[in-house]
Amino acid sequence: MAAVQVADSLPSGQPREAPREAIPERRNAFRRLSARLCALRPDDSSSARTEIHLLFDQLISENYSEGSGVAPEDVSALLVQACRLVPLNQNHLVSKVSQLIHHLLNRLQVIVDEQHLDFLLAYTISAIHQCSSWTHMEILQALAALVYCNGSKCQKYLPELLGKTGLLMKLSDLAQSDPEVRRVAVHCMANLCLSVPGQPYLEEPYQNICFQAFLTILQSPKSSDMDDITFCMLLQNALKGIQSLLNGGRMKLTQTDELGALLAVLKKFMFHGLPGLNIEMPTVLYPTPLPQYDGRTPIKPQQSESSASRPTLNKKKKSKVKPKKIQQGEEEEKESSGEIEAASVTGTGRVNLHEGNTWSPSSLGVQSLPLDGSGAAGKDGVSSPFSSSSWKRVSSSESDYSDAEGGMQSKMRSYQAKVRQGALVCFLSTIKSIEKKVLYGYWSAFIPDTPELGSPQSVSLMTLTLKDPSPKTRACALQVLSAILEGSKQFLSVAEDTSDHRRAFTPFSVMIASSIRELHRCLLLALVAESSSQTLTQIIKCLANLVSNAPYNRLKLSLLTKVWNQIKPYIRHKDVNVRVSSLTLLGAIVSTHAPLPEVQLLLQQPCSSGLGNSNSATPHLSPPDWWKKAPAGPSVEETSVSSPKGSSEPCWLIRLCISIVVLPKEDSCSGSDAGSAAGSAYEPSPMRLEALQVLALLARGYFSMTQAYLMELGEVICKCMGEADPSIQLHGAKLRVGSPAMSWAAAFPLPLFQVVMFWTMMLNGPLPRALQNSEHPTLQASACDALSSILPEAFSSLPNDRQILCITVLLGLNDSKNRLVKAATSRALGVYVLFPCLRQDVVFVADTANAILMSLEDKSLNVRAKAAWSLGNLTDTLIVNMETPDPSFQEEFSGLLLLKMLRSAIEASKDKDKVKSNAVRALGNLLHFLQPSHIEKPTFAEIIEESIQALISTVLTEAAMKVRWNACYAMGNVFTNPALPLGTAPWTSQAYSALTLVVTSCKNFKVRIRSAAALSVPGKREQYGSVEQYARIWNALVTALQKSEDTIDFLEFKYCASLRTQICQALIHLLSLASASDLPCIKEILELNGNMVQSYIVQFLKSGAEGDDTGAPHSPQETDQMVRMALKHMGSIQAPAGDTARRTIMGFLEEILAICFESSGSQGALPGLTNQ
């Protein structure tokens, strides 16, 4: 059984609890009436009918509520008994029992169990068939209550309800004469579509039937016999049904016409009843980058869209700065006609429709009552605490109006607003159910573009944001816009607006840039005009989403400056949610394409700039230097902080964030703080957490400015990690990850003593406690990440006992049972093993290896992926140690441990791609590291064979391209070990065959480049094996050269030149090693493809080797020398008498050099290498 928000609710949207002393009395009354009903037996006499009527009236008139203490199974049993007492030929009693079913299920919030549902469904369906048409309204209401959240249990009745001649299909048809019956029939269908988590969805054929029925209703005009309010409720039910199909039923809109038709009606009803606007839409919207058809009925001049105001009223409100306090649970806004609309919100004071999540039982785990949507005041329905879903419910008074506040006109506007909200919430579900690349085909239908001179602006989501009188609708529109913008970075990246485009046509990139500019303009207008704190929060969140995805490095300057200056006053808004979202927006600005010169200048501007904005909607501002407070303790005050270079004063944003985190809050903004604990001296927790995140983003993106605050940040971290709140501790630890220990330190070097002082403060402070705090594993993991961010130079300068502490703690935490901690520890060990001061310590490397091998066997994929990465790093350390003059490390490193590492890497190479990519990297390094003393041992022979087979298998597998690239790289690494029997071992031909297959046919050109590089690694002819093997490699490389432009993926074309360069290098390398027996096959291939090969090698020689992933580029002189060496080698080969192959190949090479000499304009003679 499930229950939801009761219908009888307070104005704030919170349930009205029944008095405790009244609950037993109500429960007893229900039991007394139920017992009387159960004692009756079917009787057709008039006295019996009268008694049943009276009992039903008493049951309906009882003042039930959620806390009445009545068991759901008792309600179900009573309803079954009531139906058994009422024969279907008694229309009045059938009507009354239907009202009883509807009333009890709604007021007591009961979902009928399967045992009783079957009987009640059969009864109500039979009643519709047999009873007079005037009873159908009540019977359908009862049916809607029964099927609510029970769709999966109604399978056997679906053909009768939703089949071609099904009851609901007939009653919801356009031909239905009674509009109320039609509306309730649609409501029944919507309730059938509502799914419950853990239960089967409605079957696909019925999903499609319902979807088409709802779509037809939305596409059909209002019939003449239907009043406006009934029409609005019909639309709400149809929209609710489609939303249920998209959310719970996981229905996918794959057909363009189907999606286009839905989007067309959604756009139409987004503006339903909006004052001063009446648009006509085509039946279907089609994806196109061009502006969509938008037919609008002309409107009166005084209602012109050119005024960006919803809000003549809002401006009046802003001019009257009254100290009136609006309750947090309720937001009031006068509409143009003078009525007031109450916007029910959640306890935190914000509209609960955030991050693209619409209200639904499946997403929130809360069930709402069967929705009737009827227009009669005082009838059934429910109120939900979720304002975002208020359109889906019918409150106890059916609306947020009263006759005194505008009568029918106000009632009409309220229902129209609910239709607009319903369309927007349904659009939100549509966005979640389709791919983003499909959605962006309809970008211009919903996102504004800069209007042409003299033409009106297109109707878009911003029209609602700027002009809709309902704050709830404005918030819904902003949530839809946020959902569209979320993840749009790749789509928006094509925008370009850095130069003036004077062309006969407008490029797509300029159109997108224009759209981005218009979004900035409209959202900033909305920011200034908005009076509702909840909607204001959504505007700022929407701006943050836009800032996070827009390509400011390709746009003209000033966009971010305008946002920055507009948002600064809101940091001191009286509503905590507005303050938090303002910090989120500032964080988005400092993280987008960091570092941006425009943001660098904004950070350096005086702290008071922008805080005195006269257009601000927030009159509750402190003086510009509000954050320059006396510090809470001597540590911050005594810290000597020098201003960053180029700035006239300290970075105001860093000082602001530090003050929010560590200093007591001001009384002026504490009135509506919803996130602070009672009696807390600090800002609310969400504010402090957001400030810490902004500090971390500043440290990552603008380290040149934050480096001056290194020790002050250390104080902040120590204070946060010493607090009791785990979330503050966690974000304090994460701040360190973004602080100077990142790679930024290389670009903006700090004095080493200062970095060492910072880390000494951390290690003598709260960090060891956090590392040992097993009660908070997330904090432990974050502390491990922080420990791994220390720079090698700083680590080696730490006191010896602090170094030992770090190593000991990490090795100890590797045994943790928590997967987050174990993954973070594995990664940290993989960082430490690369430190120059540790990598030659055999004991530490061995201990780290054993810890990593243990983590490679963990059940968690994340732990194994981190361990595989660390194993790759550890084997990199082995290779580095090989190159040192001192051989002691290689001699002391355990052979048994090498065996264990090889076995673990082989097993890991069969794992998921995340693990496999680093496992093959480790295999290549390990096989490279093996010494002749290892290879000679019989125990290694089998493991070497298995390792190479694992690499070959990975090269050939259809895995991720990163995995195959690493496998080819590893294969080249293996070939560099002269101790391995390359050329004579059985695996030689398999290895070369795998690489030649990849170089000729792999779809990814970077993998082809790496395989060609691996084929050019062996330095001796005998390592290439037999003549046949050599010929196959040569032939494959020529084929690969020929196919170097054959790709269906245009993204691969940029690698074509690099691929040809690498293949040409490999061909010349093979020529420089060729033996006399190899020459005939080379000659044969050159006779067939000589011109093609020659042209590419000449191109290679002229341009030099381009930089690619295989190493540093070669100069033209070096590439020229490679050909000369190959020519010299050919001249040194002793060919049999009469053999023309050598002469042909030498002529081929000489011609290449001659062409290069001629093209370079050199008059020098070609060296006479042919006489050798």
From TrEMBL:
User: Where is the stretch described as Disordered?
Assistant: 1-22, 292-406, 613-645
- Limits of the DUF4042 domain: 418-599
Q: Which Gene3D superfamilies match?
A: Leucine-rich Repeat Variant (1.25.10.10)
Which key words are in the record?
Answer: Phosphoprotein, Repeat
The biased composition feature labelled Polar residues covers 300-312, 345-366
Biased-composition ranges for Low complexity?
Answer: 383-399
Q: Which Pfam families match?
A: DUF4042
Q: Where is the composition biased (Basic residues)?
A: 313-325
Q: Which InterPro entries match?
A: ARM-like, ARM-type_fold, DUF4042, HEAT6
- What SUPFAM superfamilies does its record include? ARM repeat (SSF48371)
Which top-rank group of organisms is this from?
Eukaryota
The name under which this protein is listed is: HEAT repeat-containing protein 6
Q: To which species is this protein native? A: Mandrillus leucophaeus (Drill)
The gene name on file is HEATR6
